[in-house]
């Protein structure tokens, strides 16, 4: 009988070395750069068929409405739209990688907060000519502009604000919306008293949406950015986070909540307030078993620190951009149609409560006479502002850096003053990079 | 009897060495293309400031490495080790206990063996989502049961607290890992001759004595391989942690795998990501050295 000459010990050793080597190499290899990039993603720009990348196609409530717009276009133009979708919280990462790698072409849905970061990649087409044909509102047009170039056609423009469940407020004996942070806190304590697992305010506490802290910081007087100077870390930002921590410790806000958890809790009638964009009404009501919930949803002006202060809200909206390359012209026409065709935008509004970004669409009786939308515009969007960090390619990292520090405070891992000082330093470093 | 000489005559001019090289060449070429080149390229990138989205890069020397060493490397290492050790030892103990039970001739052991394999055949991401719903603070099954039984008065944020988040991640990984460990150990146990147990029993050895004197020496080799492999896999494990906590809350479950991912694909900072990956690989090499030292020492002691 012959033997291999390799002892069990040697075999074991080689096995271990091999496994460790492949593990380490594979790990690093995954981060290897993919080479240079060109500004166009290639292909025939006049092709009739193109792709449409959208997170709405990944959301149960929005998907049918977007699919309907796509189907109508395909039928009318006798062309084919290839759809691509990623969940909202993963969307920017996935899109950036695919766009940078030349795999994304055609029309691309973008959150206005991401436009700056994506536009800086140099892959988006200038849509100035198309924008002139759309009849968009001034605010809408501006939401698609970065560095003086029209990269996106506005699909919807609104804001992120507070939504209340009037049934729960009534049950807790709250007859008026709280105007100041003090009144708001008192209202939350009343709501907590209802018991039954009610979360008074389903505020974001997970990193993914903890950017919602920014309007509260502004409410407490922090400007976030003053010229070139990052002001996160000042007394106002520390006060805001200290207050947020107080709400957390008193269980007036819940741990482990992102936008989708908040919608689920609100939909179950277990949250009295939560932060959302105007889309929240349609998305939350659609997933709720309570068919009367939509009527109970009320937009609430964000409470101010002192009576007379300007309420803070974050501007919010979607645009459709177009990647240079394959199907660019047809994708531009599709983007123009989806965002400005009156019948299409009004029907989209009727399904998802997303107001059009065109003057004609907003003047349509179906939009103009909608009480929720009118109230939202008056009470929240009127004073909404964009984030000063949107101009930076590192916006997502900036939001995450602040969110991680706020989360550290919430879980007791850091003191508000130290955490905000660290957040400010990290944001300043990111801006410099 | 040797058969190589006639083959050389009929096969032409290739020597054994050249023939072996010919056989390994495709594998080596593939290895160079998909592992060596990206690895060297990635290691090189660690010395540059490079954004994944933007063209061009700038040489920054050791800046990316010092960034990690100055901010959080120790914490990430500690958390990676806590996860790795926890997610290796716990499923090993459970798997070994079940393997011993199934090897003892338990009634219905065939059915139970199949049943216990169930978690192993479910994809890791699905397992992670399943446990994410179980641990959910606001509508999770675990809180529901504990509230119903009166063990807790209000919902606990299992994944939202640093203390419980790591525990939850280890439990989830344990659930996914113990079956394969059980199967490997059971295979090892089945090679132990029954006669040895019978002889030890006749000499008056009890169950515990028989385990340490007969069973353990026979399965120690298999157990070492199982532990080593699980340790390596856990040291680089990603999906369970990423799905359950994303490395949070406040970085409490951040390991090398999630930190490299966050840096590369959320922060788009390729330079820092590859620098951390390089440091991580250095640690793996330390593990290799430690492993070699241990095995050599054992060999010399014999």
From TrEMBL, chain A:
SUPFAM superfamilies for the chain: Periplasmic binding protein-like II
Range of residues in the leader sequence: 1-25
Protein name, UniProt field: Extracellular solute-binding protein
Family: Belongs to the bacterial solute-binding protein 1 family.
Regions crossing the membrane: none
Family annotation (PROSITE patterns): TAT (PS51318)
Superkingdom field: Bacteria
PANTHER family: MALTOSE-BINDING PERIPLASMIC PROTEIN (PTHR30061), MALTOSE_MALTODEXTRIN-BINDING PERIPLASMIC PROTEIN (PTHR30061:SF50)
Stored InterPro entries: TAT_signal
Organism: Streptomyces polyasparticus
Keywords for the protein's UniProt record, in alphabetical order: Signal, Transport
From TrEMBL, chain B:
InterPro entries in alphabetical order: MetI-like, MetI-like_sf
Main location: membrane
TM ranges: 21-48, 81-102, 114-134, 165-189, 210-233, 273-294
Record membrane topology: Multi-pass membrane protein
Domain of life: Bacteria
Database matches in Gene3D superfamilies: MetI-like
Keywords tagged on the record: Cell membrane, Membrane, Transmembrane, Transmembrane helix, Transport
UniProt similarity note: Belongs to the binding-protein-dependent transport system permease family.
The name this protein goes by in its record: Sugar ABC transporter permease
Record organism: Streptomyces polyasparticus
Taxonomic placement: Bacteria, Bacillati, Actinomycetota, Actinomycetes, Kitasatosporales
């Amino acid at each position: 009988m012959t033997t291999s000459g390799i002892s069990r010990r040697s075999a074991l050793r080689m096995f271990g070395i091999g496994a460790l080597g492949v593990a380490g190499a594979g790990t690093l290899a995954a981060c290897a750069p993919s080479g240079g990039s060109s500004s166009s993603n290639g292909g025939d720009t006049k092709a009739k068929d193109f792709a449409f990348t959208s997170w709405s196609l990944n959301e149960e409530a929005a998907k049918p409405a977007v699919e309907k717009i796509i189907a109508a276009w395909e039928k009318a133009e006798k062309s084919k739209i290839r759809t691509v979708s990623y969940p909202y919280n993963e969307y920017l990462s996935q899109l950036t990688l695919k766009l940078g790698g030349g795999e994304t072409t055609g029309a691309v849905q973008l959150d206005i907060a991401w436009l700056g970061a994506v536009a800086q990649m140099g892959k988006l087409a200038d849509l100035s000519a198309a924008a002139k044909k759309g009849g968009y509102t001034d605010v809408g047009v501006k939401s698609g502009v970065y560095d003086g170039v029209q990269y996106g056609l506005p699909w919807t423009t609104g804001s992120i604000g507070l939504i209340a469940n009037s049934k729960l407020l009534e049950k807790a004996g709250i007859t008026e919306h709280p105007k100041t942070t003090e009144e708001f806190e008192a209202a939350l304590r009343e709501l907590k008293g209802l018991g039954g697992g009610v979360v008074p305010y389903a505020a974001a506490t997970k990193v993914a949406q903890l950017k919602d802290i920014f309007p509260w910081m502004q409410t407490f007087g922090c400007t976030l950015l003053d010229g070139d100077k990052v002001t996160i870390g000042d007394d106002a930002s520390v006060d805001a986070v200290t207050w947020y921590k107080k709400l957390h410790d008193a269980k007036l806000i819940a741990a482990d909540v992102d936008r989708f958890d908040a919608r689920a809790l609100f939909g179950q009638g277990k949250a009295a307030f939560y932060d959302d964009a105007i889309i929240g009404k349609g998305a939350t009501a659609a997933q709720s078993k309570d068919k009367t919930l939509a009527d109970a949803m009320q937009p609430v002006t964000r409470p101010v620190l002192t009576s007379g202060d300007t309420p803070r809200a974050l501007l919010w909206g979607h645009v459709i951009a177009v990647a240079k390359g394959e199907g660019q012209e047809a994708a531009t026409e599709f983007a123009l149609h989806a965002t400005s065709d009156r019948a299409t935008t009004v029907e989209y509004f009727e399904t998802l409560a997303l107001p059009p970004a065109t003057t004609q669409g907003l003047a349509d009786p179906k939009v103009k006479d909608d009480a929720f939308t009118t109230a939202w515009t008056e009470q929240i969007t009127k004073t909404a502002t964009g984030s000063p960090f949107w101009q930076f390619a590192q916006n997502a990292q900036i939001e995450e850096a602040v969110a991680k520090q706020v989360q550290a405070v919430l879980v007791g891992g850091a003191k508000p003053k130290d955490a905000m000082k660290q957040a400010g330093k990290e944001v300043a470093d990111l801006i410099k990079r | 009897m040797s058969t190589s000489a006639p083959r050389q005559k009929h096969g032409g001019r290739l020597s054994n060495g050249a023939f072996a090289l010919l056989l390994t060449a495709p594998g080596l070429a593939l290895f160079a293309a998909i592992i060596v080149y990206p690895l060297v390229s990635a290691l090189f990138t660690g010395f540059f400031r490079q954004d994944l989205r933007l063209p061009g890069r700038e040489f920054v020397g050791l800046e990316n490495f010092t960034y990690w060493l100055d901010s959080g490397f120790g914490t990430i290492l500690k958390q990676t080790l806590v996860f790795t050790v926890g997610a290796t030892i716990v499923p090993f103990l459970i798997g070994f206990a079940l393997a011993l039970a199934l090897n003892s001739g338990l009634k219905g052991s065939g059915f139970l063996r199949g049943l216990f394999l169930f978690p192993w055949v479910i994809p890791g991401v699905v397992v992670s989502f399943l446990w994410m719903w179980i641990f959910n603070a606001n509508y999770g099954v675990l809180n529901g049961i504990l509230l119903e039984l009166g063990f807790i008065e209000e919902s606990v944020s299992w994944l939202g607290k640093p203390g419980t988040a790591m525990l939850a991640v280890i439990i989830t990984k344990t659930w996914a890992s113990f079956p394969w460990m059980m199967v490997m150990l059971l295979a090892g146990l089945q090679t132990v001759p029954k006669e040895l147990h019978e002889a030890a029993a006749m000499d008056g050895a009890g169950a515990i004595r028989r385990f340490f004197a007969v069973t353990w020496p026979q399965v120690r080799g298999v157990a070492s391989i199982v532990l080593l492999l699980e340790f390596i896999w856990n040291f680089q494990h990603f999906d369970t942690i990423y799905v359950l906590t994303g490395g949070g809350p406040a970085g409490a479950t951040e390991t090398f795998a999630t930190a490299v991912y966050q840096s590369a694909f959320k922060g788009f900072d390729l330079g820092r990501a590859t620098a951390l990956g390089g440091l991580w690989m250095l640690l793996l090499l330390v593990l290799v050295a430690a492993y070699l030292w241990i095995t050599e020492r054992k060999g010399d002691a014999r």
